[in-house]
Amino acid sequence: MTQTDIGARGDSGPETARLVASRVLDVPDFPKPGVVFKDLMPLFADGAVFREVVDGIIAHHGRESFDTVVGIEARGFVIAAAIAYATGVGVVPVRKAGKLPRAAYSASYALEYGEATLEVHQDAFTAGHRVLVVDDVLATGGTAEATMDLVERAGGTVSGFTVLMELGFLGGRERLAPRPVHALLTV
Ligand code: AMP
Asked: 75-87 vs 47-61: helix axis angle to the nearest 10?
């Protein structure tokens, strides 16, 4: 394992980018050969840094700009719950297939490493609810695209999208355009 280069940039400025970079570990060949897994557990485990990162996400969007936060399973749940608690809004999990107990919408997509299906409860949002979507890593953008599609099918409006880290060379930001992407660290 090696630490991610601390010279990286991000949409909340170089200081935040450096902070995130200082708490990411590169894990080569996980979960399969050729993939460098970006492990953000050290960031979650550092209370002061995690709080600063969460506060930075809220400051970027503005605490009045969203009614609900969506976290993408599983690491997105950690970020979404913290934002929801800090701002007093609710949190909606977007889950992997087969985990939700009631009627759900499904969206399938290709991952950097494999295929996946995500689901959200059909009654998760009140019509027109403004939804902030969060996840740990943006790679090819398939996960985020499927999630935003699910939010809209369930009646929500995506008001923002934040990831702690973006793998710029995989083109996720371009795939999601014209939706704005807020990445604290871009490599
Ligand atoms: P993608 O759909 O290709 O943008 O992949 C993003 C999703 O897969 C996110 O939920 C990430 O947690 C996970 N992911 C994809 N690639 C990586 C990576 N290299 N390191 C860590 N997580 C990743």
From this structure: 70
For every one of its 187 residues, what pLDDT tens digit does the chain have, with 9 covering 90 and above? Answer: 445 555 689 999 999 999 999 999 999 999 889 999 999 999 999 999 999 999 999 999 999 999 999 999 999 999 999 999 999 999 999 999 999 999 999 999 987 566 899 999 999 999 999 999 999 999 999 999 999 999 999 999 999 999 999 999 999 999 999 999 999 999 9
Annotated catalytic residue 52: no
Atom of ligand 1 nearest to the CA of 40: 21
**Angle, CA 152 vertex, CA 92 and CA 62 arms, to 5°:** 60
Predicted model pTM: 0.95
Atom of ligand 1 nearest to the CA of 167: 19
Which residue among the candidates 112, 130, 152, 179 is catalytic per the annotation? 112
Task: Count CB-CB contacts under 10 A for residue 166.
Answer: 24
CATH no., domain 14-186: 3.40.50.2020
* Strand 36-39 relative to strand 90-96, pairing: unpaired
Task: Please give all residues whose beta carbon lies within 6 A of any atom in ligand 1, as ranges.
Answer: 35-38, 72, 75, 111-112, 135-144, 172
